[in-house]
Each structure stands twice: as C-alpha cells, then as structure tokens.
Amino acid sequence: MYKILLRQDLVPNIHLFKIAAPNVAKKAQAGQFVVIRVDEKGERIPLTIADWDREEGSITIVFMEVGTTTHKLAMLEAGSSIADFIGPLGLPTHIENFGTVICVAGGFAVATIMPIARAMRMKGNRVISIMGARNKDLIFWEDELRAVSDQLIVTTDDGSYARKGLVTEPLKELLEADEKVARVIAIGPSIMMKYCAKTTQPFGVKTIVSLNPIMVDGTGMCGCCRVSIDGATKFACVDGPDFDGHQVDWDLLFARQRIYLDEEKRSFEQWQCQHDARS
Ligand code: FES
Q1: Most exposed residue of 38, 110, 151, 279, measured as fewest CB within 10 angstroms of its CB?
Q2: Positive/negative CA dihedral, 38, 44, 49, 54
Q3: Residue with CA nearest ligand 1 atom 2
Q4: What is the pLDDT of residues 39-72, one digit of tens each?
C-alpha cells in the first residue's frame, strides 16, 4: 500500500497528492508517469509525475476528477493509502541546452510541464512558458511556473484572468518575433497539443507533445496505448509519452481515445449510484 502524505485541493476539481513511494522517487525524471490503482478492484490509470523528493521518498501527482477512478481517488484524505503505484514509467523528456525553449501547458498539465521547464532552465535554456486555462478559477501554480521560467504568459479562454484567448496565439507571436526558438514542448488536452503542433509547423520548430492514449499495463505488453508516429506504430508507454507533434496521427489518437467512452460513462454512473446510496 502507498500512503498519501499530503493532499491539496488546487482548484475545486483538481487535486495534488504527495505519495510515499521511495523506489519510484529514487529514479523519477521529468516527463515520466506512474500507473496507479486506487484499490484491489480498481482500474489502472496513468498519471504524470509532477514532482518528486528523493530524500523524503515521495512522488507528487496532480489529477483532475474526470471519471470513476479519479473521483474515487479524490475522496481519499492524507493518511489513507492506495493499492498500487507503479513507476517511473515511460521515457524521460529529452533535456539539453537547446537555447530558447517554449513550454506550453493547457489546463492541469501545468503540473506536468513544471519539472520539464525546471530541468530545461537548469540546463541553461532560456525558458518561455505559456499556461492556459478555460477560466480564472482553473488557474494554479502560476507563481511556481514563473519561478522556473524567464518569461511567463497566462491566458484564459474567457478572458476572466490575464490575456484572453488560446495558448496558440502567444505561441505564434513568439515564433514570429524570435527566430531563435529551438524547441517547443506542448502538454495538455490532445486537441490543444495538435493545434500547438500546427502552429509551430510553418516555422519548422521541433515540437514535443506528451501523448495520453488509453493505457492498461504501462509496460508495452497490452498494446492499448498504440499511436502512429510518422506512419510507424509506437506504444506511448514505452516509446513515449513524448513524441514529435508534427509526426503524430492525431485523428487516430482521437478515435482511440473515444473507444471506451460509453463504458466509462456507464462505470461512472454506476459508481455515482453506489456512492449516493452509501452516503
Ligand atoms: S499501456 Fe499497454 S502497451 Fe502501453
């Protein structure tokens, strides 16, 4: 069992858990993920590693309540435990001194981009970060991301905070203004990553995205996380999750992400009924 050392509610439906997992913390690197199971009968879900503390032996995860498992997870308090916590999985993000790097985070992926922006800065890169959310109430870790960036741009879709608009708009402006951008890292909802890659393509700037297909084992055995990159089949859990955004077959990714939508909906409705009956 893996103990929850700390719980923080970052915004109403996005939570941070610090979990005691010394063996995972020993090896965790930016861009990697864990697969968790809340209890013995639960499904396995992948969650990106937002931070780690090797001395304390802990891993920080940030998740949004979207389905049965994340709702179950959100009901746990500090001091309770989860059944399984496997990792670190996936290849770490490639970090080197590229020069100027733009890190783009959409929604709660600000937690995923944090260790990457920090590692890029520590390697001597000039880091420009862009974080976007639907509205003001969903913004978190603004100061934290600013602290590891040379420049931070914040956008909200509805203009309720900072700049109104989508993250692709300042991204395009930066590329138009600064020819020396060597790399873009874009992480967030798949549709956002697709459009970030489309924005950078005419500028020829390599753009890394972190794909989030359905995963089961997380070790390359089940084939669930199959994606197509430049026409070749890859498994996101062992060949990724980072890939060149200009080479991703986005339509296939979207189609595969939708495969179990009905089952997921049914599972959540069932869980809600059980949960309501108990409370
Ligand atoms: S999750 Fe099973 S092969 Fe990647």
Answers
A1: 279
A2: positive
A3: 222
A4: 888 888 899 999 999 999 999 999 999 888 888 9
